[in-house]
């Protein structure tokens, strides 16, 4: 039995929690070991990551998958959402005691002639709704490549609407990759549950996203990181498209937060375990540090149906010496990472 105590975010109230298996309790637990005390978060979340393959097109490798997931845990990530994997994952994915809880959408679903060779499943428009619904019935999510790069035709609105309706009918959710204005509009008008990337999207759609509950996972840090390299390339329509969209992306993120859109932190990057980079990028775009941290913790967990640091909640937590909202660099130095009621990482102090 373990115990943690301190100020729990988001509200900063003092809590004293014990892990009774994989659930937090405030009741007395005899002989519970005080693992850490400080500032407590209910575990970090990477809402857009694709573990298990080193490069686009690679096969899913179970050893690589474990390594990637351990990198997440080292960074304090106790929950991931993988909107697209190189293949269906092994049975231990998401339940192994030393790796994060996981939500996933299986392989990506794409139109013919689009997406990375060797990854995903290509489908005709007529079969896309039923394929997406079958995937979501198995795993809770389906991921559709709504558009591809600068010139790929987006999935038509009537098809995407049928996909969303079919997935919702089986109790699932739809994530849509989009980096074009046209594809972003299709995703929002179709009622997708989350827009992944959202580069070049019309800010005029943000009010509708907020109203219908469509989340935005902007993967801002990886775009910002790639921008200098893209700028160094020879001039082309594709280069101008990417530079224009990536430069405007921080403004879109800030506007989304202001409009009440739920923003989720996702890294979409290798090496894994770089959630701090995304939180920094969200704050740098103009989100309050409190909200940027929420996008990678309690709000993202709520989006996935997980309560925070309260009795009966899953026993995940990350403990820091200081309030990470006033110093985001604290995220790089957790005192302890608790996953499923077990201390998987502990840094002894004093």
Strand content: 15-25%
The parts where pLDDT drops under 50 for at least 5 residues are none
Please state the structural category: alpha/beta
Please trace the helix and strand order, writing H or E for each element: EEEEEHEEEEHEHEHEHEHHHHHEEE
* Spatial order of strands in the largest sheet: 3-2-1-4-14-15-16
Residue share in helices? 25-40%
Describe the structure.
This protein is 32% helix and 21% strand. With 350 residues, the chain is α/β, with parallel strands linked by helices. It folds into two domains: 2-41 and 308-346, Urease, subunit C, domain 1 (Roll); 44-303, Metal-dependent hydrolases (TIM Barrel), CATH 3.20.20.140. Strands 3-2-1-4-14-15-16 form a seven-stranded mixed sheet, with no helix packed on it. The longest helix is centred in the last third of the chain and has 23 residues, at 237-259.
């Amino acid at each position: 039995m373990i115990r943690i105590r301190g100020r729990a975010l988001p509200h900063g109230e003092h809590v004293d929690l014990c892990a009774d298996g994989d659930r937090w309790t405030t009741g007395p637990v005899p002989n519970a070991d005080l693992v850490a005390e400080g500032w407590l978060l209910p575990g970090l979340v990477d809402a857009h990551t694709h573990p298990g393959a080193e490069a686009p097109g690679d096969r899913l490798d179970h050893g690589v998958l474990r390594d990637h997931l351990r990198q997440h845990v080292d960074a304090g990530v106790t929950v991931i959402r993988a909107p697209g994997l190189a293949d269906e994952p092994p049975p231990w994915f998401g339940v192994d005691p030393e790796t994060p809880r996981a939500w996933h959408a299986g392989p990506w679903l794409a139109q013919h002639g689009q997406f990375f060779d060797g990854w995903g499943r290509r489908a005709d428009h007529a079969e896309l709704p039923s394929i997406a619904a079958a995937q979501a019935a198995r795993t809770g999510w389906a991921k559709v490549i709504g558009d591809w790069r600068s010139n790929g035709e987006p999935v038509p609105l009537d098809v995407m609407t049928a996909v969303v309706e079919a997935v919702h009918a089986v109790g699932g959710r739809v994530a849509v990759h989009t980096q074009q204005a046209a594809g972003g509009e299709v995703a929002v008008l179709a009622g997708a549950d989350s827009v992944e990337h959202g580069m070049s999207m019309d800010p005029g759609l943000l009010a509708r996203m907020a109203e219908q509950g469509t989340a935005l996972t902007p993967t801002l840090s990886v775009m910002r990181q790639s921008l200098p390299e893209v700028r160094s390339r020879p001039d082309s329509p594709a280069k101008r498209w990417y530079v224009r969209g990536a430069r405007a992306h921080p403004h879109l993120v800030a506007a989304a937060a202001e409009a009440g859109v739920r923003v989720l932190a996702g890294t979409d990057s290798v090496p894994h375990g770089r959630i701090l980079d995304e939180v920094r990028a969200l704050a740098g775009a103009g989100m309050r540090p409190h909200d940027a941290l929420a996008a990678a913790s309690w709000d993202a967990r709520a989006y996935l149906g997980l309560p925070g640091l309260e009795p009966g909640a899953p026993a995940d937590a990350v403990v820091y010496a200081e309030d990470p909202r006033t110093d985001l660099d604290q995220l790089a130095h957790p005192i302890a990472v608790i996953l499923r009621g077990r201390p998987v990482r502990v840094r002894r102090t004093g």
